[in-house]
Amino acid sequence: MGTVETLRSAGVREGDEVVVPAFGSRETAEAVVELGALPVFADVDADSLCLDPAAVADAVTPRTAAVVAVHRFGRPADMGWIRETGQRYGLLVVAADEPGAGRPDQDDVRRRRDRAAYLDERLTGVLTPSAVAGHTYEQYVVRVPGNGRPDRDAFARALRSRGVACRVPVQAPVYRLPGLRRDVFLPQTERAVDETLALPVRPELSRRELQKMAGACNALGGLLRPAPQPAF
What we know:
The chain is about 40% helix and about 15% strand. By secondary structure, the chain is α/β, with parallel strands linked by helices. The strands form 2 sheets. A 4-stranded parallel sheet has the order 2-1-3-4, sandwiched between helices. It has a two-stranded antiparallel ribbon with strand order 5-6. The longest helix has 17 residues, at about 105-120. It is globular. This is DegT/DnrJ/EryC1/StrS aminotransferase. Belongs to the DegT/DnrJ/EryC1 family. L-glutamine:2-deoxy-scyllo-inosose/scyllo-inosose aminotransferase subfamily. Pfam families: DegT_DnrJ_EryC1 (PF01041).
């Protein structure tokens, strides 16, 4: 059952508010709009890039009927804390896979995990994703050190020039997309959009290709330094 059908069957109706992630694809918010309900964007956890339960609590109003938590890049959202938050406020909680994600082949998942583990051990030029139970690594998403989007984009161009087919996984917060614009600023979402980069962990990648990728990332990452923080 899709997100629209799940929300409709649970009684979400026109005029209700539904809390959705601000970081990711637009399909989840559009499913809420299709029902005539209002998507309310909540910030994500800096580590998981999935909904932050504390941000969900902050987004709740008397009109809130439901929360949709999306498993992002193959990493499961923290459903225990999110369900606890939902119970506290009497909300329906829906867990959804990332739009477009298919049913993973377990051999492919095992190989992706092997490649992710290899990169976890060897990458020093970027911040690697936390290894958690259940992560299928649909995408291996790192954070590029430095000063946000300009450094991340330059880093990505340099990697591509070295034959590493990296990609920016999310181009903008959902609340800035046409038809879904809201006058909000969510700091962890903004940082994730500016800093994240997906590196390939396809099952067919060879060990030599992984070594080349790690070497390029480490060499480039050493050139980037975060801007000094102002003293207060």
